[in-house]
Design a protein that fits this description.
The chain is mainly alpha-helical and about 280 residues long. The chain has 12 helices and no strands. Helix 3 packs antiparallel against helix 4. The model has no long low-confidence stretch (mean pLDDT about 90).
């Protein structure tokens, strides 16, 4: 082994970027890595900021994939849609793993900087709200925390004005299963609730998977996605309870009680309920 430090230049690696785009240039790292501004001297505030900033980046990617998946669904690009849905599931797996890092912060650590958050809270994440709206949890009341940012409010209102992803899935279900009849009109002003006629068609699909393999595979992709989404919510509840107990959230919610209520939300209820009928 040579006692000289390895120089990758002679092997072809570019070493001079004075006139070329570098890794940092492409990713705009100066802009990203200078956006962490703790408001206290608490060591763990940096962790808290980075945890939430990286979560927002992953949610941006999830929105990118879900929007493309909906477009692929409506244009018959099934294989592409399946890949995008699988990626969203993996994104939520990544978000789940991030809670493990934040849980290294103790109640004493968080108390040192909690007051600096003021009334800000993850409850106000408009990207999280957009994901819920795309997937079908349409709660118009959740527009209110975004009324002070007209651009964001308009974006969320635009999503509420169109069929959600699951509405498009239901339309495909009725268009594909023989004798299904017309699909029910989507309710654009409220969260999706289980419909007996939709559950009956999913039962038809699951009882004849060879005939309706594509729909069956789509159903399982959606269950997989919601499974990981539920785990993310559960990990959120557990982390909050571990760090602040049953204190009220910084944004004014009831904290753990509010988050536990969110665990009851079902995005694709018929796909879960049908399992009891098979």
């Amino acid at each position: 082994m040579s006692d000289q430090p390895y120089n990758p230049g002679p092997d072809g690696a570019r070493m001079d970027f004075r006139s070329a785009m570098s890794y940092g240039d492409y990713l705009h790292l100066d802009g990203i890595l200078t956006q962490q501004h703790p408001l206290s001297d608490a060591h763990d505030e940096m962790l808290f900021i980075i945890q939430h900033q990286t979560s927002e980046l992953w949610m941006k990617q999830a929105i990118h994939e879900l929007s493309a998946a909906r477009a692929a669904l409506t244009t018959g690009q099934t294989a592409q849609m399946f890949k995008m849905l699988a990626r969203v599931t993996r994104i939520f797996e990544q978000l789940n793993s991030a809670w493990d890092v934040l849980r290294t912060m103790t109640p004493a650590d968080y108390t040192r900087f909690r007051e600096t958050l003021g009334p800000s809270s993850g409850f106000q994440s408009y990207q999280y709200r957009l994901i819920e709206y795309i997937l079908g949890n349409r709660n118009p009341n959740m527009l209110k925390p975004h009324a002070h940012v007209p651009k964001v409010k308009a974006m969320l209102e635009a999503e509420l004005a169109r069929p959600c992803f699951y509405d498009e899935v239901i339309a495909l279900l009725f268009a594909t299963v023989e004798g299904a009849g017309p699909a029910p009109a989507p309710n654009l002003s409220a969260p999706h609730n289980a419909l007996p006629e939709v559950q009956a068609l999913w039962q038809t699909v699951y009882e004849d998977i060879d005939r309706y393999w594509t729909l069956y595979e789509l159903g399982e992709k959606l269950v997989d996605l919601e499974d990981y989404f539920r785990r993310w919510r559960f990990n959120h509840v557990t982390t909050v309870e571990r760090v602040i107990g049953f204190k009220r959230g910084t944004g004014g919610t009831s904290g753990v009680q509010y988050l536990r209520r969110m665990l009851e939300v079902e995005l694709f209820p018929e796909l879960w309920h049908v399992r009891g009928d098979l």
